[in-house]
Design brief:
The protein is α+β, with helices and mostly antiparallel strands and 199 residues long. It contains eight helices and four strands, in the order αααααααββαββ. Helix content is 59%, strand content 16%.
Length: 199
């Protein structure tokens, strides 16, 4: 045990960018820690993530997206319960349910069009892919003035498929696209749209 402690206390010099070390030093001071402690904590986290088979950058990125989701009104819910509630709403008030999901999609898209991001549609696409864990395939492709959206999920119910398609239609409208075709069936959504020159 004594030998292990001596080995673990040895220090090695490494080279890092000056701006990064200055920023890390400021963080250490804010937390009331030494730079030595902070650097070693970061190394330990990186090693732990690696041993768990995780990419540390991805962990941080996904945590950031989770925080964005929280701030934008998303909540965690059991998938089966979410589908059941969607089915009940669709069966009881189909028109109102579709309208509500359309408006939710429009509101969600506006969060991006009114933000300072360089490419609102790209940011929307990337975040949507993360937020829709229940859809193993979600693609948004833009070519010139046209856009195509494809969503596939064997777990979607009929009702949820139509409601989620309405959500996407609302978002596309905010981005300036008019729907030109739609192919919607259980677990499969294919939307095509065109952007008007004035949009």
């Amino acid at each position: 045990m004594v030998m292990d402690k001596k080995v673990s206390s040895r220090r090695k010099t490494f080279v890092a960018r000056e701006d990064l070390m200055n920023a890390l030093s400021d963080i250490a001071k804010q937390r009331g820690h030494s730079l030595y402690e902070t650097v070693n904590e970061l190394f330990e986290l990186a090693i732990t993530a690696h041993n768990m088979g995780l990419n540390l950058k991805r962990v941080v990125d996904e945590r950031g997206l989770t925080e964005i989701a929280r701030k934008r009104g998303f909540i965690l819910a059991l998938e089966t319960l979410w589908y059941e509630m969607a089915d009940i709403a669709f069966e009881q008030r189909k028109r109102q349910a579709l309208k509500s999901w359309f408006e939710a999609g429009a509101w969600f898209a506006k969060c991006y069009t009114t933000s300072a991001v360089a490419d609102p549609l790209l940011a929307f696409k990337e975040d949507l892919a993360f937020f829709t864990w229940n859809a193993p395939e979600l693609t948004v492709e833009k070519k010139g003035s046209t856009i195509s959206v494809r969503v596939l999920s064997p777990r979607f119910t009929d009702s949820y498929t139509y409601l989620f398609a309405s959500f996407l239609e609302g978002a596309l409208q905010v981005f300036g696209y008019t729907l030109t075709s739609s192919d919607i069936k259980k677990g499969s959504i294919r939307l095509q749209g065109v952007r008007s020159e004035s949009a």
